[in-house]
Structures are given as structure tokens and as C-alpha cells.
Write a structure and sequence with these properties.
3 helices; single chain; 5 strands; alpha+beta
Amino acid sequence: MWISPAFAQDAGGGGGLMTFLPLILIFVVFYFLLIRPQQKKAKEHRNMVDNVRRGDEVVTGGGIVGKVTKVKDDQHIQIEIAEGVRINVVKGTLADVRTKSAPAAANDSGPAKPEGESGGIMGKLGLKK
């Protein structure tokens, strides 16, 4: 006999779903352990980049630390890396926003008043310097 008995046996044919079950389980595990967290991190980074404002301290992908002086458009900002040294940076290359500046209040009409003139604790107590 030249043909082995293994080739002549039936393959079973009834395990269609059972053959793909391990592959499906592997995909589910990869989704929850790798794909989903990476998508969440990318979404947080996109929100961080979209919400960058003037006055924020940022770090670029190349490691340059600077303060945002101007938001030019949706994709470019200008940062000051030293006194009088400003560079244009693509927003997408920002790695981190270290310090968020406080948003400007809508009712601010000008610069803050000195502490003795109706501002600060001394002014509220009615005491003058």
C-alpha cells in the first residue's frame, strides 16, 4: 500500500467555528490590551494639541522647551525658547504641554489694580498702606 491511512480518514468537517475561535480570542485580547489604549492616548494628545494657548509652556518632539507666544493657525504656533528667540513649530510635533495658562476672564477690563487700591486683603479690610 502506497497511500498512508491518514489521508483516507475523514477530516471531521463539523468544527468550523471551533477552528476560528482561538483566532477570534487573540484579536479580542489584542484589541483591549493594545489597540484601544493607543487610540485613547492618541485622542488625548489630539485634544491637548488642539487646546494649546498663548502662555502655555510646551515641549516639542525634539525636546525643545518653550513658551507659546502666538497661535498662528490650526497647525502652527510660535514659541519663545529664549529671551527674544522665537521659532515656528508645527502643532502636531508637540510632545507635552507642561504648564497650562489660565484662560482670560471675559470681564477683565484691564490690568490688575495694586493691592492697596481696592484689591487684595488690605483693600478689602479698608486699610491703606
